[in-house]
Amino acid sequence: MTVRSLSQEEAVERAALLAITSYDIEVDLTDLVDGPAFRAVSTVRFRATAGASTFVDCCSEVEAATLNGTPLPAAEEGRIALDGLAEDNELVVATVQRDTTHGRGVHRAVDPGDDNVYVWTSFEPDEARYAWACFDQPDLKAPHAFTVVAPEAWTVVSNSGDPLVEDVDGGRRWTFEPTPPLSTYNPVVVAGPFVEVRQEAGGHDLGLYARQTLASALERDAEQLFTLTAQGLEFFGERFGMPFPQRTYDQVFLPEFGGAMENYGCVTWSDSILRRHEPTTGEWQVFANVLLHEMAHMWFGNIVTMRWWDDLWLNEAFAEFACMWAAERATAYGDTAANNLVGDKLYAYLADQGPSSHPIRQPVRTVADAESIFDSITYPKGAAVLKQLMHFVGEDTFCVGMSAYFAEHAWGNTTLDDLVGSLERASGRDLQPWRAAWLETAGVDRLGIEQTDDGLVLTAVGAHGAPHPQVVGVGAYRRAGEALEEVGSARVEVVGGRTAVEGLPDADLYLVNHDDTTFATTRPDPAGRQVLVSHPSGLPTTLARAVAMATVWDMLAGGDATAAEAVGALTDVLRVETVETVAEPCLELALTAAQQWAPESERLDLEAQVAAAARRLVDAGVSRQAALRTLVRTATGEDDLAAVRELSGDDLDLQWYALDRRAELGEVDADAVQALQERDPDPDAWVRALGVRASSPSAEAKEEAWTAMVERTVPIQAARTVAAAFWRPGQEDVLAPYAERYLEALPTLHEGGMIPGLALTASLFPVYAVDEAWVARARDVAAAQAAPVVVGSLTERSEEVLRMVRARSL
């Protein structure tokens, strides 16, 4: 079936005609034990302008459809025509979705560990129409009531907890209370023979679910997950003046799921985030951020929803900002800002300097276009801008404005004007200049420092003219032996291209944005550059060191520093950094700079430098697990691998890394791979085995891995892991054919939905054996042949690889 994407114009017209009263959805999962069919009967009650015509969205196979008892014509292009509407209407559509392996909206996964079947739905941005008939746009909200028949051994979870469960022929029927009014992308149904863990906390009934073969990982991590969940619910409820309004809050970890989804009251996750090994501190930081991001959506996205996808950034940027805000204020992860600086913020800086740059808020003509802006501008840049806004109006004022916003608009839809208006009333400030500059203008400012005869000057260059209105901190640091002592700081309100900096003494380094309060790339003056590159470990705080590393990385990406300088700066910081949520990503950045950004002639020496830094961390007991992985990934032969084995004991995770490295160096020990796969209790150990073979410079192994990824025989999250093993340095000859193979695959990478489109486009993109001309060609091919989600993901990833290619030539 050819499926049309809903346009904003059509959505506005339909919303003017309709008011949805309720959805009653009956789901039959009994065929899914052995077959592919997901069956649903959607009963929609709605009011309408009498005599009007419209359509309901439906992309699955229609078995029967009636409007007010009258049969309806067949669906065309994913739509069923509705003519001659009454004031009060009842629409009943029975459907079956048979493509539950690679299709959209509904997925059936078989656990390779025990052959148990798990089923889940996931609908953002408009994929509910693949599961049942609905008016699939965000501003037609309505309560959803689910009745689900499932096999007797299965547990069913949905948005509202405490279902009525009854035995019926062929299984059990689960009846859930109606939800509050939700947009069509917020409901969820998940089912399977889950293991379940529950805990009471803060007046909420918290639930965790996973497949049975991951029971030990779930039970190991449950207490920490419950703690983070309770901390987040308390923080957001207090800051937003509205406790989460439902008693149950469930989180379900699912096989073959991509990312995480903020379904109201029932967040779904990829169960790859349940680490098969003991999670490192840095991995827990990621876990906390994602958990709090999805939780923030309960308020910003679910309780209050954007009217149309041009305000998608309001959902995603706000949740991304709020997760870091909550992590710093309410959890053990008080260095989240520094972690973000050496993580996602780097990608936002890079994206905003290349062809993928766009205003945070921009027109979105169709839902298909919306899929293309789930990117680094919408997420980390948007989050940074909202953080800057909170500093601009003050945190207490910000909370007052947000509480008023939620109180006024709960269970409704809003636009940007509603949010800005609420914050203007709370702050008494005109925020329209801020809005125009930060939300409606693309590009990132470049801030610098100059020492002139008249004193220090902060320079500011906007991407397309004047710089953004912003307040930025400048720290002054002076050498004191090995240390760089802060001898002063200034808060500078940028008023144009050149702003005097008052009150700072002479110093060896002036660090711009040292307190990370704005979104701007920065450059030191010539004297400061030498200090920044050669001795950043002297800076006194984790945040200052992270700002320095973000500056050095942007210098590398911009061609203002070499890979050797970047590795030197990062490994210097690792001499002193003890905050593991910063040390771990810095170690990863150092290895990435050595392996992906450095000229081939320098790679081995730089890898050795990174390995030396990892050995120091092991000796110091800082980020030991991550450091041991790095030692394996930089091993030059069997002696190095044996040394790590002696340190790591019977750690299965590190043994997989060792097999990866041996394969990359040219030796695939098939017997050892098979033996480890049999010993490993991880039900997805077969993916690790495929990754070992993918690391090999063997043409046959590369072909096996590429085919598995392109043909989707590995889950989306696993494809990222296999792709990282596939694209290895020093293997350019065997990798060369896959540049063309990638171009051939581009028209199909979006199949199965937005998440596969984003993940496969970025992870399969060639890292080696390409040049600037090929990158330009890839962009042209994508623009001519690929879906918008693929074009957007390719544009962002290609810019990063293009800059790697240039750095390798320095």
UniProtKB/TrEMBL annotation:
Biological processes annotated in GO: peptide catabolic process; proteolysis
Record-annotated membrane-spanning stretches: none
One Pfam family from the record: Peptidase_M1_N
Listed GO CC annotations: cytoplasm; extracellular space; membrane
rRNA processing keyword on record: no
Keywords recorded for this protein, A-Z: Aminopeptidase, Hydrolase, Metal-binding, Metalloprotease, Protease, Zinc
EC numbers on record: 3.4.11.2
Any one GO MF annotation of this record: alanyl aminopeptidase activity
Domain Aminopeptidase N-like N-terminal: 111-185
Catalysed reaction, written as an equation: Release of an N-terminal amino acid, Xaa-|-Yaa- from a peptide, amide or arylamide. Xaa is preferably Ala, but may be most amino acids including Pro (slow action). When a terminal hydrophobic residue is followed by a prolyl residue, the two may be released as an intact Xaa-Pro dipeptide
Residue stretches making up the ERAP1-like C-terminal domain: 509-783
Entry-linked CDD domains: M1_APN
Cofactor(s) required, per the database record: Zn(2+)
Superkingdom of the organism of origin: Bacteria
Coiled coil: none
Tagged with keyword Ligase: no
Chain ranges of the Peptidase M1 membrane alanine aminopeptidase domain: 229-433
Recorded family membership: Belongs to the peptidase M1 family.
Database matches in NCBIfam families: pepN_strep_liv
Protein's name in the database: Aminopeptidase N
